[in-house]
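From the shared-data thread, chain only:
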Amino acid sequence: MPFDVREFPAGDALREQDRNRRLISLWLFALAFMIVVMVGLGGATRLTGSGLSIMEWAPIAGVLPPLSHGAWEKLFALYRAIPQYRLMHPDMHLAGFQHIFWLEYVHRLWGRLMGAVLIVPLAWFVWRRALSRALALRLLGLFVLGGLQGAIGWFMVASGFEKGAIAVSPWRLTLHLLFALALYAGVLWTALSVRRPRPRPGAPASLRRLVGACAVLLSITIAAGGLVAGTHAGFDYNTFPLMDGRLVPAAYGALHPFLRNLVANIAAVQFDHRLLATLTAALFVVTVGVGLAARPPRAVARALAVVGVLVLVQYALGVATLLSVVAIPLAVAHQVNAALLLGATLVTLHQLRAEPA
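Structure, as tokens:
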């Protein structure tokens, strides 16, 4: 059942319904864009080591940055107490701390702004009775998911304060990334369903299944990429397509039990991401080729073309990031483009929705 705005009678009220549908979908598209920006900010924060610069979880008081020298010194003293400072930045002065602080501050401030952009218009639309009960509940659920994402972010950051840690836990970082993309997918799908609540007639089921398989495999590949980021596996084996002169690195199964290699062995983590990325790209290329050859409706063809371009860009960015030994601009672009590719895949899948039985 599509999520629609509140039902109105015919005539002027029907035009009001269409107007509300446009406003609600534009609001949700804007929120989806903000999540993509957030993914980029999160990547930059991780790559610059800024994520542990704010030691307190203060959703309200943390809106304001330090406003005095004493406040800066207090935050810097907290940072000097964690292992990252002692092991990686023992010579850092206040100016260096301020440099990493601002990126994490903007990251958290953007998250707060996203919460406001979700809840304030939601309250306004509910007050105007412009939402159906189902849509209002769905949007409230997305707001709760956004709050949970913030809590998971702090859960991730807290792992960097543990004894001997110089970065956050890889699996917590991956969980944080996946929750962000789940929120993004939920907001984007809801926006698309509000804008076009009825499925397109005649969508080929075989193509829909292929695009669905692409979405699933892409999500698994993104999760593997989160483990690469969390274990810093991209800083090793910086050749392509071989790893240390071999297709499969010699150290792939070095840890015991074997399953530990999938999450803790740098050679295995990077190889798995390479393999998944290659399989994902191949499936996308096949899907786009099959889809365009079937001469689908123009909107579906356009969506498939965008997906085809983005998957080629994503693969190229992945290789370039590896060969550059994780140059920050390339790594951030790789992470942002992954979100864009996921979004384009969901748009295509939405265009191919089946008629309800």
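The mean pLDDT is 88.
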